[in-house]
User: Fold these one by one.
Assistant:
Number 1:
Amino acid sequence: MIASFFQSLESHSVAYLLISGQATVLYGAATFSEDIDLWIEPSPENVERFRTALREVNARYYKLTPPLETPYLRSGHGFHFFLGELDNEAMFIDVLGRPPRSRAFAVALGESRHFETDWGRLPTVGLRDLIELKKTQRLADYPIISALTLGVVEASGVSAETLSWAVTNLFTAESFLFFNEHYPQWVQSSDVPSTLTRLAGRPADEIPDSVIEEATRWMNAAMARHQRADRNYWRPIIEELRKLRRDRILMREGTPV
Amino acid sequence: MSTLAEIEAAAEVLSPFKAVRWRELTPAERLRRSWTARNQLPDARVVHDRKLFPKP
């Protein structure tokens, strides 16, 4: 079922990127995701191609989903579909046309990566875009971001820009200590509390608990800012979704696409 | 059959120290194993909905 779905996207030339859970699995930063998240280019032509691909695999609308139309995609709504019956075998597909904190689709597509898998050759959002998308309200996403960030550093080397960016995208003490020990040059390019910068390059087991606690507070404060920003991002979209529900514009669960 | 708690525990991100073996796998193999674990969920719908439509 899942391979057929991706084959259908391919055969109808749908412009899309795999994002979120399965993308983090492909990049090696997480071990599990229960659904398929896609970012599709929200142009009318592409939406029509996507609709055709969904129909070909008998997809149906799931909960809280507006009609699959460009204006709703462009205003940031999430679209939820399922394949098969709504039982243990059901497969969920969650779609965005304008993910939070995203750049233009064409720009992200230019920095995407293709992975060869059992489901075909999957266009997958680039690491830095994926990291921005994962700055959600869910605490569980922040260790994943940290692992993805270490992946960026390993893949792209230790330029001052990369290290400066990386140190603001680590949210666990474990990832920060690893980064600090292996990439001590970060200290030259970042605005970080001096108690932390003084210990750049030191092995994790030589870092005093008080410094680890300060690092944790510093990262937690950044995490809280991202969570707040995400809440504020979704507020007007959720408000509009409530209005669509009141106006009975949302699709009924189970309706074929 | 794995319990939901076991599956969700396995879903937690790997630390940089524990991730080595996982990252040594090919992306295709990681996806294969992830989807196998997903197929063992007692109810994928519950997990999906809890993440996507959290109760306030």
Note: Helices of chain B lie at 4-11, 20-24, 27-39, 44-52.
Number 2:
Amino acid sequence: MKALLICPAARDNVAALSESFPLSNLPLFGESLVEYWLTHLATLGAKEVFILTSDRSEQVRVLVDDGVRWGLRVEVFSEIRELTLAEALAKYQVGREGAWLPAPHDAILMDHLPGAPECPLFTSYADVFKALTAWTSRAAMVPDCIGLHEIKPQVWVGLHAHISTEAELRAPCWIGENVYVGPGAIIGPGAIVERNSFVERGAEIAQSVVGAETFVGEFTQVRHSIALGNTLVDWKHGSMVKVPDDFLMCSLAERKPSSKATGFFYRPAAALFLLLSRVTDWLLFLRRSVRDEVK
Amino acid sequence: MNIKQQNGTLTVDNLKEISAGQARALRHEIHAARAFGLSHVEIDLSQVNFMDGVGLGALASLYEAVNHQAGKEMPVMRLLHPQPPVQQLLELARMHDVFEIVPANSEAAVPQPAPM
């Protein structure tokens, strides 16, 4: 059976969420939104899924590949804008014979998590937090959450997470894979710390989401916020700030090399340096050989 | 930056940003003002649109300096009307544990003159 998945285009109301990747690739409890939906469609019996994306299609293609991970055949199509459900069905059902999943599963706009249409994700930052909080206990049931364990009621910790024995975890909270939590840190209540993040000692995180690969500095306090790299959004009031200092908060994602390094003079200078170092090596080798011969 | 001292209250306003460039001047000016006998120190942040770690450090050192000079009676230190992004930074760095922060949408209570 076939189905259509429509990736949400960037939304002005939650612009910070799509700074680094399209909304469909946003990591939520260790998985991206599109991965949740593909898992859901596979469980409904879909065999072929067409993904329509209007924002950074290549990133979506890289993430889902050909869909074999879900036992699906997935194709990603680029669109110039986000299509409505009716437009998408009109355009993609024509000429594609065979069975489609029954409505409303035949075409889905990924603006909520599967099974939670009452919790829209991208209408406001407050809604993002509300939807994720509502999803927390369900995320633990996702079959792909290997190694996740509930260490005490409503406190989930992912695989290879390192939690200091002097840290305090207050339920409900979710700590993803490979997260480090330092001594004296307080996580929760209502905290979600996504994979590969680093929470320094003494930091406090409550009623907040810390995005994947985010560093939270020593003795900082993150409350009613969404922290994504160096972007800090107050979901309660809707304000946003770029934290200017890495010691307070920053992204741990691999940084792109500076464009200066590949400038016009860089390559010839590097070649010249390489050549000179070779010549020097050769001269040193020659000198050593002469010395050995004299001895 | 304007600094005035009246009725035991030291007021700093007209600040545009508190970063490495301005932190030294802010520290110098406030150190120059006599903190002894002050009952209130108020820093108006309503016009500040940028603050970094050095600026936060300047505020912390200001707190230390006032605390040091003030003797037994520590003056009330307030940060007035920070814009939301600045308030977020202050809270991230836990400055609200040190200073009283009067939010942008609320009126600061007029400090009472220090008892003579």
Note: The longest strand of chain B covers residues 2-6.
Number 3:
Amino acid sequence: LLTSTVPTISLLHQGGEEVHVEQFLKRFVAAAAFAGCAAGLGLAIRLGPRGVVELLLIAGSIGALLAVRSAWRAIEAAPMAHRIVAGGLLLLFVAGHVAEASTKTFPFVAWRMFGGRRAVSDPRYYRIEGVAPSGERYRIPPERVWPPLRDFRFTDSYQLIADRQSQLDGVHRDLLVALGRAYMRRNPGRRLARVEVFEDTVALAAHDRHARAKREFIYGVDLE
Amino acid sequence: MRLLHSDGTESGVGIVRLLVFGVWAVIFCLDPIQQLAELPVAALNPPGLYMFLPRAAVEFLFSEPVLWSLRVAGVGSCFAAALGVFSPWSIVAAAAAVCLVQSVERALGSINHSEIVFVLSAIVLAGFAGADWLTRRGGKRVGAGDGASLVLMTLAVVFVFSYQFVAIHRIVSSGLPGILNDSIVFYMVRHTGRDTFWVSGGGWYIYESETLRMVARWGFLGTTLVELTLPFGLLLRRGRWFYVAALTLFHVGTFLTMNTVFLQMILVVLLLDISRWAAPRAAVTPPVVFFDGICGLCAGFVECVFLWDQAGVLRFAPLQGETAALKLADVDRGSSRTGEPGSIVLEDEGALYRKSEAVLRIWSRLGGEFRIYAFAARIIPRAIRDAVYDLVAAHRYGVFGRRNGCYLPVAGERERFLP
């Protein structure tokens, strides 16, 4: 759009080279986009002592890589625009990691997989079931009803909603109704009257998964 | 000590671009994101820039037509970016589509890391493509030197640092006791019991056996150390194979014990020396592409091949020229309707290749992603490929036009064009 609408008027001369309005605008847009991302990340950063330690270790690691001569040669050989892009993206990548709020800084996020110390306790799972008018029950795995919510996105967030049931009763109900209706759309032969959620607690202390499943009813909604 | 990809080539970047956007194109094809319109909007909290949108805009965004449009745009732009068509616009559009779709998919809550490296890779590729556009004047990139090395290095650094950041955070926040207690066993058990497309039950077996629990604990420590030192994989050419093997083992383990597929594992290709194996193969005698000089299609194909062949591996000669008359004198001309040996013929290492085989061998000679295209196209039986080739060749003058004279190379091309 910029190249087609902005006339390439010769604005001034720098060392004999023409600098065009188009070129200025292109760079301005790129710089503004980067500054926007950096400002968003900057606002989200809450650097505690642990964050500082992590940042120092990361800086050390980057420094070690940059100490390799061939890395410098490659950087020197690259055009200036490429150097700016590489540096800017790495900066955003690191800033996203040390920022506290991954939701705000997406897609530059914190990398914290399996980082928390967890005591082994009895794990709990949600089991969602649809109840037909005849009383027949069908298991409803949410990730199969809505494949885009793979990788436990549904169950992780459902847990947050269920934990705050008193405040989020309307959301909770609407979500299960939507799930039940979507299940019926995917399985036209199965009509549901109700969706119910149970919580299964596995007794790990027994060291026997077959002895699991203390099942507790936690929520139910009528679809009709 | 040399840094991996410090001698990167454009072909290497092409391979990664094909891989990254090819994977996204397939994901968008298979992923019915329009189904998310069925979710109640109150339950959705899309991350990133979406957070700043008013609720009405989020509602509009999560309507089925918008999600369908996003999906179609994602598929189109990713395929175009993977194939290098309409660059850099397709690459920038594809990266934007990837970010938008990922934000939409993560709107219900959790953000996991299995796809984030792939998202960041798309952003990195778009960043460099955008930089080339910014600095382009009169069709030429401003700046000296080859930028491919830095593109590959940045991608590789993002890939290895994603692991290293995880390890650093784990060590700083939990310390050694946090790694050697049963934390990882808890995660395995918890993930095993969830509903997903693939349920191995591996986590249960780990928990029930004291020996396997010990293996898991020490394996977790080993994995953390591998992750922590992964940047060395960029430096040590032989040691890199250890890291590739360790990462593969780790991700097979998480697949079996946690039912989790880590998409970024596909990018382990960045730890391999793609800058070398993607480079065009040199020949003692340069292969010669004979083409129909008066055919609009053939001349257009040759122009494209000439541009793609940045290493100057190939030579070109019109079928109507002296070189063709000399080298193709014994070729059976009766098999062609036009009395010519074909629209494209390749002479490579003393052998002549015709029809689709000639085209695929030309791609192989170009190296990089073209070698992958050629490999993929060979899945189609030769008889079918040649039938399609014959159909196009038979109608080439009618559809693509006929030139009055032979294709004339411009200055700078002449040394690669034979008479």
Note: Chain A touches chain B through 90 residues (CB under 8 Å).
